[in-house]
Structure formats: C-alpha cells, structure tokens
Amino acid sequence: MLAFDLETTSANPKEARIVTSALVRIDGRDVQKVEHLADPGIEIPEEATNVHGITTEKARAEGRPHEEVLKDTVAAIKAAWEDGLTLIVYNAAFDLTVLRSLTGDFTVTGPVYDPYVIDRVSDKWRKGKRTLGAVCEHYGVSLEDAHTSAADCLATERLGAAMARKFPQLAMPAGRLHEQQVQWAKEQAADLQAYFDRIGKKTTVNGEWPVRPGRAEQ
C-alpha cells in the first residue's frame, strides 16, 4: 500500500493548496516514509494553522515551492499504482480532489482504499463522529500528533488493517473493492441527501468517489 495524507490551507478541496504532503509506501517488508512541507504561495488562514500547526512564516521559511511538492506527490502516487500498490487515504474524496483541482488533470489509475467509506458502510448505524481521530479510537488504533500528515498516514494504514481484520467481507481483489466503494459512496450520499430533503435543508450532496470534478470541469 501507499498511505497518503495532505494538510492544506482550506477545508474546501476546490480552493485548498498543499501545506504538507506525506506518503508512506509499504511494499512487503520495505517501508519508505516521505513528508513534504510546501510553501503554498498564499497566506495560511489562522483556522487552518489551528488544525495542523503550520504558520505562513514557517511554510515560507522552510517549505519547498508548492508546484514541486505537488509534482512529487502526484508522481509518487502514480508510481505506486504502476507498481501494483493500493492507495490508502482517509476521506479520499477530499485529498484526491485537492490534487485534481490543483493540477486540472489528475486521474485515478489504480485502486483506492478509503477507511472513511468502509467504516460508514460496515458500521452504518454507529453514532458519533467519523473523523479520523474518532474512528481510530473506535478501532483501537493509535493516533499521535493528529493533523500532522505523516501521523495521519500511519494511522490510516493501521486503521485499514484493523478494518480488514474485523470485516472479513472486505477480503476481495483491490480493484473489486475499489468499485464497491464507488457504489457505497453513491448510496451514502443518496441517504444523506434524502435526510436533508426531509428536514428542508437546501444543499446538494455529491457522492462521487474517490475524486470529484476539479478545475478542468468547472
């Protein structure tokens, strides 16, 4: 697997720029960890800094150019898929849509495993938050330094393994599981849309997974 996580300037994937990008490649016994700090080229809003702890000053002083980090991140993901690895990323529709929005042409060319989608379908009626921290706690997975992309990467990989142990029905080829998640994400969005319609909340829930239309389709 290649575990992947971004910390960004915004919670909106269509507007976000990269602050940190972490990739943990697990290929048999070989584990390679890479974390990039980027200068996003814009001010990092205070609310984003409060989440991941990276200030504009730190990013400008220590970060690499944003386009270099973006290019290296996409290249690492594509290389992993070419080598037959599965990309594991929590709430993939956010991180991969960020890449699509920033590049305009990022496409998914290999399997993705998203513990966020898996948890929502495997334990549908559990109450409580579905944040990475909350779900890790539920499955007994350690998450230290939450919202640092390297820590979130490692926790996501462990969470994926914990879910695979708990839900044997997930034991299927990676490509098939990917297609199942596409369908599950659509069904989850439809259920949420129906709920919003019942309570009169005017919003549209997008169920596209693992990447939503970005800059090229706008």
Count of strand segments: 6
Order of H and E elements: EEEHHEHEHEHHHH
Report strand %.
Answer: 15-25%
Structural class: alpha/beta
Description:
The protein has 218 residues and is of the alpha/beta class. Helix content is 47%, strand content 15%. It is built from eight helices and six strands, in the order βββααβαβαβαααα. Strands 4-3-2-1-5-6 form a six-stranded mixed β-sheet, sandwiched between helices. Strand 5, helix 4 (92-103) and strand 6 (112-113) form a beta-alpha-beta unit. The protein is globular and about 45 Å long. The mean pLDDT is 94.
Any key phrases for this structure?
218 residues, alpha/beta
Question: Which helices and strands occur, and which strands form pairs?
Answer:
Elements lengths: L1 E7 L9 E10 L2 E10 L6 H7 L3 H7 L1 E2 H17 L4 E2 L3 H12 L8 E2 L1 H8 L9 H8 L9 H18 L7 H26 L19
Parallel strand pairs: 1-5, 3-4, 5-6
Antiparallel strand pairs: 1-2, 2-3
Helix pairs in contact: 5-8, 6-7
Summarize the structure.
With 218 residues, the chain is an alpha/beta fold. It is 47% helix and 15% strand.
